Amino acid sequence: MPLGNIMSEGEGKATLRINNITAHQSGGYECRASNNPNEEPVTMETVTVVLFKPQIDIDKFTRTTGSLIGKNISLHCIATGQPLPRITWYGPREGQIVSAIDYKTKKSVLTFVTKGSNDYGQYRCQAENEVGEDEHFINVTQLSKEVFIYKYLLVMV
């Protein structure tokens, strides 16, 4: 299957045009040229990086989670993109929240203690790079101890 179309641009010039390029086509490319089949060709190597907008892997996340007041909660966001996206969290009332990003796993985890009703609501994970952005919403609901215990006993029966 051809990689793309080679277009001649006159003597000593050619262009490789790749239509519908994907991230998997990033990498090294080599051009070889020769006027005489009995001589070593002249080669030129180039590295191509395909840029693409961030994409959050929503299959790995829940859209709703719950927490008791006074308990830790962790919200996860994994995003791919080239260049690697910046991940920003936004809370239900306070706007932007600072959170660390693990660039090896492309993952950001927002961990906090739910102290009151202001900590519950919709959180937004936004992944952004020079090409575009993506976002994912997680609704954090307040659990009551009675419901939590009831569910726990129901599972144990």
TrEMBL record:
Keyword terms, alphabetized: Disulfide bond, Immunoglobulin domain, Repeat, Signal
PROSITE patterns given in the database record: IG_LIKE (PS50835)
InterPro entries: Ig-like_dom, Ig-like_dom_sf, Ig-like_fold, Ig_I-set, Ig_sub, Ig_sub2, Neural/epithelial_adhesion
Keyword Cell cycle among UniProt keywords: no
Highest taxon in the source lineage: Eukaryota
One Pfam match: I-set
Domain Ig-like: 54-141
Protein known as: Limbic system-associated membrane protein-like
Source organism of this protein record: Actinia tenebrosa
Lineage per the UniProt record: Eukaryota, Metazoa, Cnidaria, Anthozoa, Hexacorallia
